Each structure stands twice: as C-alpha cells, then as structure tokens.
Amino acid sequence: MELYALQEAFDDIKKLGAKIVAVTPQIPELSAGMVEKHELEFDILSDCKGEFTESLNINFDIPADLQDVYMDFGIDLPACSGEPQWVLPIPARIVIDSDGIVRATDIDPDYTVRPEASKTVDDLRALNS
User: Fold this and answer.
1) 3-class SS of residue 21
2) Burial of 94 (0-12, 13-18, 19+ CB in 10 A)
C-alpha cells in the first residue's frame, strides 16, 4: 500500500524536481515483482542485511513469540531478506534536500501508522518556497 500511494504521488513529486527511492529489507527478486505488479516508476533498493537502516538506528528485532505469529501468517522474514535474522526497519519516510540535509521525517514504530503521500508532497513544496 505504501509503495502504491507513493506511485500515485509520483507525478507531483517529479514536478517538484524530487526523486523517490524506496529501501526494503527484501531480496531484489521480491522487489522486482512489486515493481512489475504495481507498475512503480521509482527505484527500490534492497537492504537485505539491514545495514543502511541500522545506520539510521531504525531497526528492531522481532521477538521469538512474534516470529511464530509471522510464520503462522506465512511471513518468513529470513526467506524474504535472504538473511537469518528476524529484523525489520521501522517504516520511515525521509525528505533529503539536494545538499544531503534531512528536511523532514515521518517515522513511527507502529507500522500501521504511515503518512499520506500528500504529506511528503507538502514537505517537498516547503523546500521550494
């Protein structure tokens, strides 16, 4: 849903001179399927080992009891990432300007709380004003 929402805002984001880059813990083959299925026009980078998101201090370990719940739903994180650890990044959206300075962030440890794509467009517009 997150990637689909960003795709819906893609034209507005592009008109503002910005780019979308998504980072996922999934192996590239799984991401390629999402790109194709949702006709995404932006790059999705794989951070299978979680090194990038760890450098941002937004990773969290999935406890053993929750690992069982994930598996009951058919979600095998190690298979998705190709790595043995049960680690996920906290969902985050970060707006970085052309000088590499972070100008806006939306980070919430509750994975069900995601900013609207329009919020990101508004953050980008604020950079241009």
Assistant:
1) strand
2) middle
Domain count, the chain: 1
Q: Token pair 């990101």 is at which residue?
A: 120
Question: Percentage of the chain surpassing pLDDT 70?
Answer: 100
- CATH number for the domain that contains residue 106: 3.40.30.10
| Cα separations in angstroms, 48 against 13, 41, 70, 75, 113 | 27, 21, 18, 15, 23
CB 127 within 8 A of CB 103: yes
> What pTM was computed for the model?
0.85
pLDDT digits (tens, 9 = 90+) for 41-72: 999 999 999 999 999 999 999 999 999 999 99
Spatial distance between the Cα atoms of 56 and 34, rounded to a whole number of angstroms: 24
For residue 97, which amino acid is it? Answer: D
